[in-house]
Specification:
Rossmann fold, 6-stranded parallel β-sheet, alpha/beta
Length: 203
């Protein structure tokens, strides 16, 4: 089995012009990059301009035919877990993020997922909804998350403050990354065991 640390994607969950998402993505990437137990890669949904889902079948039953969706699935297949930035819109998460989640299935399965949310009540409502979707995709949502509340959001967005002005967010990030590192390591081993058994049975 491989001894390489798990590779985690940090997904920008918004594509709109003027988005706030780049700030928490760069912040959590900077913290995660210092760790030795995982490697990380930023993934921007702007680079995967998926059409509104219009496949004949769910990716749970057949691979998508859209070439962008195929490229999206291929990227997901290289990952051992995900950290998603989630804006909260009207007590929910962004449509572009839901569309991206709908365009893959087996590439998500049996991998951990964690969240960095921002907006009203720290995007807690959006994140809870995302956890339910993740479970249906056979992912393992981790307990700890980062919730960037309205005070912190406005401070960073409009008042010239930085994440350094809110040390409690660093503490939350450590909890999230500890969870992601543990679950990604354990589930990576389990997936490799399953793959080895499948290969042996097919021989």
């Amino acid at each position: 089995m491989t001894t390489k640390p798990p590779h985690i994607g940090i997904l920008v969950g918004s594509t709109r012009e003027g988005r706030f998402a780049d700030r928490p993505v760069n912040w959590i990437h900077g913290i995660a990059s210092k760790r030795k137990d995982i490697t990380v890669e930023m993934i921007d949904l702007r680079h995967y301009p998926l059409p509104f889902f219009n496949e004949a079948m769910s990716p749970a039953w057949a691979p998508p035919k859209d070439p962008i969706a195929q490229r999206w699935a291929a990227k997901l297949a290289t990952l051992d877990g995900l950290i998603v930035t989630a804006a909260e819109y009207n007590h929910g998460y962004s449509a572009v993020l839901k569309n991206a989640l709908d365009y893959a299935y087996k590439e998500f399965a049996r991998k951990p997922i964690g969240f960095v949310g921002y907006g009203g009540v720290g995007a807690a409502r959006a994140i809870e909804q995302l956890r339910l979707v993740a479970i249906e995709l056979q992912m393992a949502p981790v307990r700890n998350a980062v919730h960037i509340g309205l005070v912190e959001f406005l401070g960073i967005w409009q008042q010239g403050k930085t994440f350094d002005d809110y040390p409690h967010l660093d503490q939350a990030a450590t909890g999230l990354l500890d969870d992601i590192a543990w679950w990604s390591r354990v589930l990576k081993v389990a997936r490799e065991v399953d793959a080895s058994r499948s290969a042996s049975n097919a021989a």
